[in-house]
Design brief:
This protein has one domain: Amino acid/polyamine transporter I. It is mainly alpha-helical. The two termini are about 40 Å apart. A hairpin with a 5-residue loop joins strand 3 and strand 4.
Amino acid sequence: MNKRIISAIVLLLLPILAFASIDESINNAVAPITAFLFKYIFYPIPIPFTEHSMPFILAWLIIAATFFTVYFKFINLRSFKIGYQLIRGKYDEKDAPGEVTHFQALSTAVSGTVGLGNIAGVATAVSLGGAGATFWMIVAGFIGMTSKFVECTLGVKYRDIEADGTVHGGPMRYLSKGFAERGMGGFGKVLAVFFAIMCIGASWGGGNMYQVNQSLAQVVVMTGGEGSFFDNHGWVFGVLVAIFVAVSILGGIKSIVKVTSRLVPFMALIYIATSLFIILVNYANIPHAFGLIFDGAFNAQAGLGGLVGVLIVGFQRAGFSNEAGIGSAAIAHSAVKTKHPVTEGLVALYEPFIDTVVICTMTALVIIISGVDGVGVGASGEGLKGIALTSAAFETGITWFPYVLTFAAVLFAFSTMISWSYYGMRAWTFLFGHGTVQENSYKILFLVFIVIGSAVNLGAVLDFSDAMLFAMALPNIVALYFLAPVVKRELHNFMTKIKSGEIKSNY
């Protein structure tokens, strides 16, 4: 069956590649929708007493994350130990419903958030906001942990499990079922459908085309730049990636977690190890670098406006990286094997921590400590931005690192794509029903968009996908506010059972 599907994909790709103007057609089609979405999703909200403004969606996410952090009495800081114990399987129950372990669910969700934004996006944040943006990025990562806790607990609480054990969960479920419990079923259904449509669009755009397009850009640089084979034949790279993604996703969530549970730890360890190496090579600059971070975060000389500007840059990078409050990760986490929904919420706390507090911070520290682009000590590489800035920073200690970065970029993009294929498919089946035909039709479309992303200049498509991604937060945050008391009860009940010994330890 898999071979026939892959053959069908290849046949579908041929006519797509024949249309030289497809990029212009796509951009023209989505441009009006993009303009409408951007007008409201990223509407700039003026900040009093400063010259700065904040995108509406960023304020929407930050206010919610702060509220939940206080409402749950800083669960993000209190529950590291039990979250780690759950990841290790301390309270696993053999007969628990679900499809994957706590660790596998976390790996899949982390692979969906850890991507090129952790490499290129952080460099942009440090370039724009200076070293001080790193501090606020860490703060935003910590409060985002609580949003993740709430949405992933709800994802498990309101999931549907078929007779064969297949799980259907995520915001679509708790929007429709959770609101129905409160006599607002119609309103919840509308929000659920809106979320599903936005999720499908985001999976094809930011979770797919953007990833393959940007990883291809790095491959082109490392294979000779303009005039290289992949520069003129980007679609070949897209077909290769599509084949590998197809092999990974055709088996469903169990096939996906087999890849992510191995790939994510491998990627994270390589990236963290190389980051630590660069930091140690430049160990003499560490105190000065941390001084730059704290001075930049609370620079009194810059005044209130300067402080707010740095804060916004840091919060924006963190919010756009870990997707806390977006609702996407709740889809992956809902497949976990557990009888107690809050266990996966406690595991999900680690996701923004790994993505933002660890990996994004590592990238920022390397750039600051190595002194590239005048940010840190001993400026060099003036004018570099994005992934080029990150590459130059690592190259100060590892001359051949650009090759490692290219490998990492492709792996990050690949892992993000296979996770987002699952998110999009669950949203697709929510709208069009469950079944092999529905699932395979979505998967084929997803694979086709991989090749489109590698063969065209995306332009407005990327803006469109960004808008759809963050539009998901609108209904999702509404649900989190309404259903937060449910999560609080689940947390209380679980912790009571742990203390009483009703839930027993496996070691």
